[in-house]
């Protein structure tokens, strides 16, 4: 499973420490799952995260696995929150 980290902070949205246009594509094969940790780094934002092209499954919040993973198309990530999603 591929993995990446996305966060939203005072410098904008970054993926694995880089912002557009310096971001690198996270590629996966058809049928392969990609796990992404979303981190709300602030300072005063609640950011609605969505991925174009499909739903994702939230599998953990704040480092704790969810007893029942939730399929979503948009997730509001607040300051200090983390979510692990599988897409």
Question: How would you characterize the overall build of this protein?
Answer:
With 87 residues, the protein is an all-beta fold. Helices cover 0% and strands 54% of the residues. The protein has no helices and 8 strands. The strands form 2 sheets. Strands 2-1-3-8-5-6 form a 6-stranded mixed β-sheet, with no helix packed on it. The protein has a two-stranded antiparallel sheet with strand order 4-7. The model has no long low-confidence stretch (mean pLDDT 82).
Short description:
The protein has 87 residues and is an all-beta fold.
- Please mark out the parts with pLDDT under 50 across 5 or more consecutive residues, or reply none: none
Helix content: under 10%
**Helical run tally:** 0
Across the major sheet, the strand order is: 2-1-3-8-5-6
How many DSSP-defined strands?
A: 8
Q: Would you tell me the overall average pLDDT? A: 82
Q: Notable features of this structure?
A:
0% helix, 87 residues, 8 strands, 54% strand, mainly beta, two-stranded antiparallel ribbon
């Amino acid at each position: 499973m591929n993995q990446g980290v996305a966060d939203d902070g005072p410098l904008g949205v970054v993926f694995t420490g880089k912002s557009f246009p310096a971001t690198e594509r996270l590629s996966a094969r058809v049928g392969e799952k990609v796990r992404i940790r979303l981190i709300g780094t602030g300072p005063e934002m609640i950011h609605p995260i969505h991925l174009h092209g499909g739903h994702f499954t939230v599998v953990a919040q704040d480092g704790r696995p969810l007893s029942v993973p939730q399929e979503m198309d948009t997730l509001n990530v607040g300051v200090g929150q983390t979510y692990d999603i599988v897409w």
